[in-house]
Amino acid sequence: MSARKLLALGLLLAVVLAGAVSPFVSSSPDGLGKVAEQEGFLDKRETGALQRRAPAGGYVFPGVEPPGPAKALAGVSGALLVGVVGLGYARLRRRRAP
C-alpha cells in the first residue's frame, strides 16, 4: 500500500470515527475542569468573548440542532481541519528538505 493511500485511509478513518463517536461523548467535565470546580476557580474564567470567537465552542457546531448532529459535525470538521493542516505542514517540510 502506498503512503498516499495509507494517509487517505487514516484521514478517512479519523473522520468517520469523529462523526460516529462525537454524539456520544460525555458532557461531564474533563480533568482540568473537575479540578477547577473542586478548587473553586471554575466560575472565574473569562468565557464571553473567547466562547463567541471559537468556531465550535463547547464542541458543538453552531446553528445545528439537535445536539447529536451538532457534535458529530464539530468532530468531523475538527478531524478534517487537523488532517489538512498536518498534511500541509508535512508537505512544506518535505519541500524544504535538501
Structural description of this entry:
The chain is mainly alpha-helical and 98 residues long. The chain has one domain. Helices cover 65% and strands 0% of the residues. It has four helices and no strands. The protein has helices spanning 3-21, 31-39, 48-53, 67-96. The chain is extended, with a radius of gyration of 18 Å. The mean pLDDT is 81.
| Total E-strand runs | 0
Q: What are the low-pLDDT stretches, counting only 5+ consecutive residues below 50?
A: none
- The average pLDDT score comes to 81
Number of helices: 4
- Helix share, percent: 55-70%
- What's the assembly state of these chains? single chain
Radius of gyration in whole Å, from Cα?
18 Å
Tally of structural domains: 1
Write down the secondary-structure element order.
HHHH
Shape: extended
Characterize the largest beta sheet: strand count, sense, and whether it forms a barrel.
none
**By helix and strand content, what is the structural category?**
mainly alpha
The N- to C-terminal Cα distance equals 26 Å
Proportion of strand residues: under 5%
Characteristic key phrases:
98 residues; mainly alpha; 65% helix; 0% strand; extended
Task: Explain the layout of strands and helices.
Layout: H1 3-21, H2 31-39, H3 48-53, H4 67-96
Helix pairs in contact: 1-4
How would you summarize this macromolecular structure in one to three sentences?
The chain has 98 residues and is mainly α.
